[in-house]
Amino acid sequence: MKQCFFAVDLGATSGRTILGTFTSNGLEMEEVNRFPNHLIEAGRHFYWDIYELYRHIIEGLRIAARKGVEITSIGIDTWGVDFVCVGKDGGFLRQPYSYRDPHTVGAPEAFFTRIPRSHVYGWTGIQVMNFNSLFQLDTLRRNHDSALAAADKLLFMPDALSYMLTGQMVTEYTIASTAQLVNANTCRLEDALLQEIGLTQAHFGRFVYPGEKIGGLTEEVQRITGLGAVPVIAVAGHDTASAVAAVPAMDRNFAYLSSGTWSLMGVETDAPVITAETESLNFTNEGGVEGTIRLLKNICGMWLLERCRTEWGEIPYSELIVEAGTCEPFRSLINPDDALFTNPANMEQAIKTYCSDYRQPIPMTHGQIVRCIFESLALRYRQVLDSLRNLSPRPVEALHVIGGGSRNELLNQWTANAVGIPVIAGPSEATAIGNVMVQALAAGAARDIASMRQLINRSIPLKTFYPQDMEDWNTAYLHFKQLTMTNYNG
Q: Could you say which protein family the record assigns here (predicted)?
């Protein structure tokens, strides 16, 4: 009997549901529905609309039911760190804040006055970013937030949506690891940190790992969708963990770049790498599948261009890429991770301001701005990869680019030029594929991640980009390092 897996893949700007099936020809993926994920700005805060996301998931399940698809299981992955406060009656106390909400500006520094930064990093191995759940929760507590004060449980985003489908509350390991609340060595929530923010283990759902069953669809969801008691599986709930599981590598001598709104570059290790060097470089040790650790760095990715396109009236990517390719190379460069680009009112103006502040030519045309973004990202990737080469327990012989950014051939070529090793692009749907893979493992339809990676390599078209014009890119890299020296942290 053919097994069909329903993957819910939610990113910070859009979401989709996908049906995945393994056949003798490999993996077949069919998109069921796709939808936007908009931030809601109200009362000086930014929220996610979890009920709208749930509505779209239900619609995807209804479409599958109308097609007569026999769904083996369902899995949900989302972006990291954000969470929902749940009351004693099981209801959500308000819409969840977005990690882009400005209320956590300066939050790490406030927290580190009570527990030293080195202690927090030593426990968690997680990159310090102001929006990590630890700092969101500490901020809410210091601000006497009424939802947190009344919360009986805290559910990370994929776990909250699974709860809406099943009525079961869990805390999935990979998504929890992004919170800076999980001890990297024990792979459990760290009591010392929970105590500092007034929480206990009881504030979280049953702790589960990728591949464990959460529960079946509630009678209400069965009635609404026309499905039976389909099991919901805890996949790698963090979208990057799902994407990395789907890297189509034939061995482990690789680095990965999950390219989307965020770029996440890293290597896979068998144990946390928590040293003075990784702390100073602000590298993160997030949970992966099959007991692995994702040693990685968060880099601001296509968020820069997505915001510009919003301001420009959604000009097609293809037009912007063609125009960027004709512009003067290395005219203006930026540090993509500068705080100026976190959530500016006008991204184009923020880029121009940065270039002006660093006494560079100001990009004036759309093509010049896009070229500035792409070249800067490629050079930032090299900067991070140079650090990873020193930290990885294995040689880095290729860079696998996965996610939506793997379709950007211009950026892929420039990345290969910058990093000096082959760049292998694809699959673009890596997150959904990884989601399906974990479901397949849970159903006994697959043996292990390594064999499934080899299957993906054989069944999905990949494109390899080889380094070119390296002398020019090496020169540009020297300039980029000088430019970013004042605020570089890994």
A: Belongs to the FGGY kinase family.
Residues 227 and 314 placed together within one structural domain of the fold: no
pLDDT at 23: 78
pLDDT of 203 > 70? The answer is yes
What is the spatial order of strands in the sheet that 284-287 belongs to?
284-287, 293-300, 262-269, 254-259, 398-402, 423-425, 463-465
Tokens representing 51 are 């009920």
pLDDT band per the 50, 70, 90 thresholds, residue 488: very low
pLDDT at residue 332 greater than cutoff 90: yes
Domain of residue 173 covers 1-238
pLDDT for 343 equals 85
The answer to whether residues 485 and 376 belong to one domain is: yes
Concatenated DSSP letters of 240-305: HHHHHHT---SSS-EEEEEESSEEEEEEEESS----HHHHHHT-EEEE-GGG-EEEEEEEE-THHH
User: Which residues are known catalytic residues?
Assistant: 239
On whether both 201 and 64 belong to a single domain, the answer is yes
User: Per the structure, how many domains does the chain have?
Assistant: 2
Answer whether residue 434 is part of any domain.
Answer: no
Of the candidates 221, 479, 470, which has an alpha carbon nearest to the alpha carbon of residue 361? 479
pLDDT at 478: 97
